[in-house]
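User: Hey, my collaborator sent me this sequence without any context and asked if I could get a structure. I don't really work with proteins. Can you help?
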Amino acid sequence: MRVLLLLLSLQAASPAPPESSLGLLLRREVAQGALAQVRRMDPAWHPDQRDCAGLVRFVFRGAYRRFQPERLATPLWRDDRGRPADFADAETLLTHSFVPLGRDEATRESLRTGDLVAFRQERDSGPIFHLMLVVRPEDKAHAPTRVVYHPGDKGAAVRTGVLQSLVTDAPVEWRPVLQNTAFLGFFRFKEWM
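Assistant: No problem. I've predicted the 3D structure and written it out in C-alpha cell form, which is a compact way to encode the shape of the chain:
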C-alpha cells in the first residue's frame, strides 16, 4: 500500500505539463484512476463491468472525461466490426482499439503508462483473454513499473504488482516473456500512437 501512495504522491507532486501535453495528462490520469481502484473501487464503476477490460474502459473514460470530454461524444472503443462502441471485451479491445507493440524485452522497457500487457489462456470452455494496465512512473529512479488489473472474478479486488516480478516470479503462464505462448504481447491505445 505504501508503494501505491508513493506512486500517487510522485505523480501529484510533479509539475503540471504545458497545455499542449494532452497525452501526458491523459496517461497520468489513467495511472491515478487505476491505482485509485486498488485502494477502493469507485462506486461509479458498475459491478457488472468489473473485470480486466472493464478496468481499462473505466479509467480511460475517466481520463478523457477530465481532460478531453468532447472526445467522449463518440465512444472510445471499436466493436468487432470496427464501429464506435461503448462496450468492448478484452479480445475486442486488443483487436480493434489497441495496436500491438511487440513481445520482447526491449518493448517491455519502452512501455508507457496506459499500455497493456495481454494474455490468452486456453480453457475447456474456450479462450480467455486477460489485460493488465501498465503504470510507469515518470521518473524511473523513484519506483518500478507496475501493472494494475482486475482478476475477473465477481467481487474480486483490483490488484497491482511490479512488472519485473511478473517476468521472474509469476507462474509460467502469466509471464510476459517470449517463451510463454499465452503471452500475446504489449499493446498501446491506437489514438496514442
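In plain terms: The chain has one domain: 2-192. You can pass these C-alpha cells on to your collaborator as they are.
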